[in-house]
Amino acid sequence: MVHSGSASGGHYYAYIKSFTENQWYCFNDAQVTRVTYDEIRKTYGGGPSRGGYYISSYASSTNAYMLMYRRVDKEQNAVPMTPDQFPEHLKVLLENMQEAEERERQQKELDRSMCKIKLFCLHPRKHTMQEMRLKVHKDASLAEATQTAHQIANLGDVPLECCRLVMYDDCAESLECSLEEVAHQTMGQILGGVKSSYPFDLLLEIRKPHETFQPYKIGGTTVKVHVVNLEANEIARAVVVRGLKTQTVEEFKAQVAQQLGLPSSNMRMVLENYHSGLELLTAPGRMLKSEGFGKSNTVFIEFIDEEDSKLPFRESQFFEILDRHINTIVIYVHLPQEEEVLLEKQRMSSSAENDQRCGSVEDEGGTATARSTQQTQTANTALSDGYDSDLCDSSSSGCRGGDHSEDSSLTDSERTLVGDDMSPRNNSPDIADADDSGSVEERQPKLVPSVEMTDQIKRSMLEPSGSMSAAAPTAAASTADGVAEEASGYACGNVAQSQAEAAPIKEPRRYFRAWPYTDKEDGSRKLRVYVDKRITFGALKKELEQYVGIDSSHFKVFRVYSNNQEFECTKLTDNLVSYAEDTKFVIKLGRALKPGEHRMDIYLLSPNAPEPSKFLLDWIFTQGTTVLQIKQEILHKIRERCGRDIPLNRCRLRKKVSGNPGAVYLDSDRLDSDASMFLSHKVFLEVLSEPEKVVSSNSLVLFVRRWRPSTFTFDPLEEVILNERTLGALKDELSKLSGLDPSDIEVAKCPGQFPCPVSSLTVHTEMEWHGTAPSLTSWPLYISEDGLVVLYRDRNEALKELTEEEKQEISSRENVRAAKGAKAVPSPRKERALKIYMGSPPSDSGALSSDTKPSLNSVPIDLD
């Protein structure tokens, strides 16, 4: 019996010799295999790498083994059973196992003969590109493979003769070549054999019964052609046309006109170039390659409006429609429930009555500072529902996502066509099934432009090309004021009033169209929105007002990332240019930020409390507001809600830096100007025991704590204010607090996060204590920032000698304090080895003291 591994873990297996065959067998879990005697010998004592079973993670470890002997006695030795001696149930089991092994062998042989390749198909009814996996035998013909593809694509009533397989590049969305010339070959020959992956894919192409398949040569160009109707202000679904790069523009126009059944005499063709935008093809004799055509391209054609064709292209309606189209993306918006909106409206009405009050507060110099109605409204709407228990006898606290901003790259996928059906390929819900409880009219957007294909382009022109009218909702009629004006042209919102006041240039109207639907899983209200990505968030919020059901100043827009993290979009002048298709947003009710406003998280700082930092409330302030004004408004709100009157000169605001208290904000400081807050906008509110003493930004505010080695205790945290940044000034302040002589004081900078807990068992010997130093702000102290914790002690105080019981008590108490809030991480189970010594046990001074030679009478064996 062998244990391969180490004392930490390993694996057991055994070698047993059969007396009937005189052959060794390895019993390894459920596997039994024959082995040679040489392989068994290599097991002894580990050693170099070995072949066979031993090539594993245990091969480098020394093996432990145990020899078990059998007496050779033909009368008493047991012999293995033969299949003929098996009971009936074992014979049946053996037969089933053999049949399963045979089936598995045949399946593996079949799998080695199967070609597996990606298959794509543009579904004729859903108009979505489906991705599947085609498995065909290498000896199957192209016709058999086409039939298999037709079945797995679930095309229903589409005739098989209207389908064919072509080589396809999914990344470039390009038709590579057709397979008519190799139709006599097997699929293994066509695909180049059975491989784990192929450099190309297959596309199941579908034609209409009256059409014929065109041969595709290698090196051609795949062009998606969209027909544009200027009168209806709409773009049709794409029709794929395969051309040659050596064709001229005139020849390609003729091919498109023939395939779509359209006139080519007055056709205008525009190429969508991802480098230079939209380019009108005006040189009929130039080849497509010279015009910038690649493997896959998109063009737009128009052939009706002669008056518009006489205008410069950049000033034409043709360009205006295309410019809107290529800048349109799809976004999804999660709306709040109607009950929440109703409650928010009631709260707004109540707040409006309270906001009529206006007061003034005396500052320390006796000057009356009047709070405007706008400032009072800001304070009232910004205060969190949960106050700290120390202020309001409530333990509730809250947190929310900050106003972070991140860019996301725009995808290169095909832009969603105006009027297209909701497509599963775009992860979009089905309009028809979005809300079974409501009528079609109820599910339609209220203010949207017409973008569907209409009867102005004859169906006879479009039906041969495979284009069909998109069944999208139309604009609902409304008699409300302003509806007719907003519904005409491009349906997009005006910029919010505050936005318009801040920006002297009026924002042009941008395209916006929304489909409301109800999520079947959770019943929430959602929107699928086609929107011009150049629209600003201010205009977007204005458009969303009618769907949210409340004014845009009372809801916030959060972007939802792939990890479900939410970030508020606070800059109303930003647009959606950097946002990708299918970006998700969530609407949350609450006071939205106006231009120049910022949201600030306020935490209550209690240095000596068990929880020194607690979230208190969030606040909205205007850039340039003084700290004194903010303090007045906060204290006024606390007095109203909690009934606690905090004197103005006994509280302060200070910066919060990664959980540590930072610089103290002076009353005259203006946030985001004198007192820069960067992007965090997090501050501490600290209630003082005496009037504020910090009057200069040059002062250094430190927390100090005395260490008493004679009792192994720490005094509570206290505060010192240094007007001079020297060690002498610090020791003078410490002398005033403790009554010690400055020459007897030693200090040490306390590491870690506030309040910087340290162990009393190690603080006296392992901390770097200094009685003198050349500088306070440089080596070796580096005490130069506000909010640092400094320990000090009396150099003459003797260290108490602790007993073992006292040490254990202190250690246990500190471990409990440090473990609060920490999560226990389970460790994986480890095997523990048991050493068995055969013979006399080794002595402490003899066998165990030797590092080079093991005991001759002992054989260590590792057991689980």
Overall description:
The chain has 864 residues and is of the alpha+beta class. Residues 52-61, 358-389, 393-503, 821-828 and 841-864 have low confidence and may be disordered. Strands 11, 12, 13, 14, 15 and 16 form a six-stranded mixed β-sheet that branches. Strands 20-21-17-24-22-23 form a six-stranded mixed β-sheet. Strands 4-3-2-1-5 form a five-stranded antiparallel β-sheet. Among the domains are: 2-72, no CATH class; 114-324, Phosphatidylinositol 3-kinase Catalytic Subunit, Chain A, domain 1 (Ubiquitin-like (UB roll)), CATH 3.10.20; 512-589, Ubiquitin-like (UB roll); 597-687, Ubiquitin-like (UB roll) (Roll), CATH 3.10.20; 700-811, Ubiquitin-like (UB roll), CATH 3.10.20.90. The protein contains 19 helices and 34 strands. A hairpin with a 4-residue loop joins strand 30 and strand 31.
What distinguishing features does this structure have?
24% strand, disordered C terminus, Ubiquitin-like_dom, 6-stranded mixed β-sheet, 864 residues, USP47_C, ubiquitinyl hydrolase 1, alpha+beta, hydrolase, Ubiquitin-like (UB roll), single chain, thiol protease, 34 strands, 19 helices, flat
Tell me, what is the CATH class of the domain at 114-324?
Alpha Beta
Mean pLDDT: 77
Radius of gyration: 40 Å
By CATH, the topology of the domain at 114-324 is Ubiquitin-like (UB roll)
Helix proportion? 10-25%
List unreliable stretches of 5+ residues.
52-61, 358-389, 393-503, 821-828, 841-864
Task: Based on Cα principal axes, name the global outline.
Answer: flat
Assigned CATH architecture of the domain at 114-324: Roll
Sheet/helix structural class: alpha+beta
Tell me the number of strands: 34
Q: How would you sum up the major sheet? A: 6 strands, mixed
| The CATH H-level homologous superfamily of the domain at 114-324 | Phosphatidylinositol 3-kinase Catalytic Subunit, Chain A, domain 1
Beta-strand residue fraction: 15-25%
Separation, N- and C-terminal Cα atoms: 13 Å
How large is the count of helical segments?
19
